[in-house]
Amino acid sequence: MIREIKNIINRKRIYFLFFLFIAGFGYIIYNLISIQYVYASKYKEHAQYQHMEEFVINAKRGKILDRNGTELALSLQEKTVYANPMLVIDAGMQAKALSGILEIDYYDLKAKLENKQLGFVYIKRQISSETADFISQLNLPGIFIQNENKRYYPQGDIAASIIGFTGLDNTGLYGVELEQEKLLRGIDGKYRVEKDIYGNIIPGNKNDYIEPVNGSDIVLTIDSQIQYIAQKNLEDVVKNYNALRAIAVVMNPVNGEIYAMASYPGFDPNNYQDYDPSLYKNYAISYTYEPGSTFKIVNISSAIDKGSIGIDQEFLLPSSIQVGDKYIKEIFRTYSINYNTSQIIKYSSNVGAVVAALSMGKQHFYDSMKQFGFGSVTGASLPGEEPGFLYQYEKWPSSMIGALAIGQSISVTPLQLVRAACVIANGGYLVKPVITKEIRMANEVIKNPEQTDSLSIISNQAADAVKDMMLECVVDGTGKRAQLENVKVCGKTGTAQKANQNGIGYTEKRVITSFLGFAPYDNPQIAIIVVVDEPHGSNNEIWGGTVAAPVFKNIMSFSLKRLRIQLENNSFEDSDESGETAA
Q: Which residues contact 457 (CB under 8 A, 6 or more apart)?
């Protein structure tokens, strides 16, 4: 009996052990099938994540150069420290070592290194090569060094608002750096390597390398020396007249190339964080203002082109004229006078300009302003361009046409206005402003990528007539201070009262002075606008002809010499004419 009981117990043990063996063997089989078949891809990815690492090889950002090859922006190689927290062995010890070397907060770094959910984290970017070499010698697990490009602007503040700058990740944030981001940035490469448990690279054919494609070089139409002279003269006029700012654009009136586009105050893109962000703007394309008397060249040329007034027509002009419910008066003259069309420009007659605009009528005047490009962006390949503002003629109050005739109740940018002067200079064609002269890619050079056909908007006769009037303005009119020795200069002054800050009416204490012109007379090759915002001085000093014209003269004189413009047969002719000298 006892023996039978023992046999039964032994059989049960055998059965238990047998089923336990079967269960264990089944579990092993289940895990093998799960690992090798059911969840194979998951474990494979996990293993690859642990043993494979992918490095991004930054493409070298393309250069930005001026028209003569002077480097305006380039990339320097810097070192960056980063970590893979999953490979860090002692976060506290390593954070203590690195925080002292890199002068960063210990606790913040320790928290980063302890976060095992991350496979990549920056520790510090753009450090010196010496510091990077010292860290490499420490052989800290999970701590790595990689090369990274840092943007550098060797000319400092020269053309800064045109070029713009990049952020810490080498991405363009302003100017050409932003506008041409795709071309400049290039395509990053990749380096995929297999690593052991200690993070060391295992040599072998599993290491893949995709070479980066460096960015294209952008050659601008800018001449850095003309740009420098423009900026220096703007700085001088701002300081001399305690003005808010000054702006200048130097442009080729035939093909639209921009030689300089400057404003003061400015900034150094190497240290852009140290400046007020408002200084990053390119004021030549983003600053809008009422142009005042410089706008009369648009008014008069349009009236001549449409046959509303004659080139040599005589006018009996009173000292003031009523348009709707507003009176527009001359600045100095209190009596009636006989002027021809040329003298309206020469002496900057407000009443004469109003008479010319009224002769066209609202719709024709509006259409001509739109043809000149006002109320629309010029299409220059730069970010931040403003279109200005021009009311639809159907909404004009009765006095609006008179205000527009003298450059009020319209907002324009300096670039729009100098382009209008180019129409007069080149015989009636509206050109597109061009900032890019050439794109140098790896296997191709694209020349003049922005060039487009010019559009004829006024007749050659009308343009030449106003060109002659602008010459007289400089020879013996309001623009005498823009005269150059042995060069015939055409120009127009402007002194515009600024609207009150509440938007109602104008103030005599806040003005914008400007000068707009081109040279040489016989074959215009350079057009320039100078705008000085709120200069201060005595009442007899603050005019377009006294503040802005001398700046124009200095920039024009240098530009003609710099570009080697032929000046033969452009000497001034003597003139005995005299008249009003109001700006």
A: 371, 372, 423, 428, 429, 430
